[in-house]
Amino acid sequence: MAHVIVIGAGLAGLAAACHLRGQGHEVTVVEKQSGPGGRGLRLERDGFTFDTGPTVLTMIDLIDEALRQVGVGVHDALELQLLDPAYRARFADGSTLHVRHGHEAMRAEIARECGSADAAAFDDFVVWLRRLYEVELPHFIDANFDSPLDLARSPRAAARLITLGGFGKLGPAIRKRFRDERLHRLFSFQAMYAGLAPEQALAIYAVITYMDSIEGVWFPRGGMRAVPESMAAAAAAAGVEFRYDAPVTRVLTRPDGVVAGVEIASGASGSGATERLGAEAVVCTIDVPTAYDRLLPDLTPPVAVQRPRYSPSAVVWHVGVRGAPTGAAHHNIHFGAAWEECFDDLLTRGTRMRDPSRLVSVPSQDDASAAPAGCSTLYVLEPVPNLAVGRIDWPSERPRMRAELLSFLGANGYPTDIVTEELVDPTDWARAGMAGGTPFALAHTFAQTGPFRPPNVERRRPGLFFAGSGTVPGVGVPMVLISGKLAAQRVAAYAP
Fold it and tell me: Is there a contact between 402 and 378 (Cβ–Cβ < 8 Å)?
């Protein structure tokens, strides 16, 4: 078996490491940070602990699949709580809908708040979502592609997707099923995760709604940071080596162009010392456009990297406050009155949403270690344009936006007696190596989906593979976990 180096100890890299170790490879993970997590790191300040990466955890079976490659089950490694409600949705008219776990509970919520017609429509909606998911996952998500022709390798599955309306538009597909406009938003806002407006996104992206609203949202004891920490611990116990504080400076190659390992910065900070680590294969989880720019400057990037269309970015405000919110769930979506116009602001005009919709998560409600007694941690997210289309001067906008977010919190029942805080804008994401200044990578346009997305194998550098949100299958915790598995499959098929 080969020695494989994985660049990055985020969820994609950790999944790749587990799957590679399960195949019997010698695996070394090199990470520029001082611990595992990638975008899911922890920030500790003034007695508060913040998760700085993903906040919503779904499809825990994918974590289980990776962990079982190193001899551990997900419930052995993590203490998981099913959140019910998964979300509390607040609307501009003052009404509230809860995304309840389980078909019957959600049906009852819809019947109570939206009426019997929409409750009955929910039955068919769940069947449709599940059928889409069952067709898409094995054939078009959890699958490697070598060319667009691979889309035809499962003609029955493709025909089934067409029959299900998967290649129509998501927004109309939701509207034709439900009368209540609030349900249109509740079951289509997930398109933003794919970097698209619901009116532009293909209906196949309803699988995100399925993962989010049907399969359930979970929260691990110790916070979201417990997921990468537990995966890293399990991998290390199985023999995976971890090298932290080790940023990769270049990918090493033999004279024939075949990958030979990586060079990392080592020694005292700023000393300029480097170290070479040999390997037969490398899995890189750095954002793909950034990887080509920094590690592969002599190669012409794939077409999707040369002319990228990025997803919207986000401003995230981590706030430690005295007191507790009133009536809040763990995850709270506050929808503004405007809807379609807001996507136009984000994706076309490059401005802040005129009537923002925002997410507020309160992890301290289910994680006592996140805040001192009598205090709360708040994670406040507002979607904003990425740096490629944005026309925002962030140094001047930051204080205005902070003031607006503070006023929003106070108006919606959240405590505002701030003890500590950290605000992250698109320029911060860019400095962290995220192309376009967005943590959500390339948008899932048709031209950047499946075989058209930057591939997870670089054939001009035999032995170099990619994982993460910038390659297949795409954005989101479930997708990056699958990306690590797909990269490991590429390594297994590679004969150096």
Answer: no
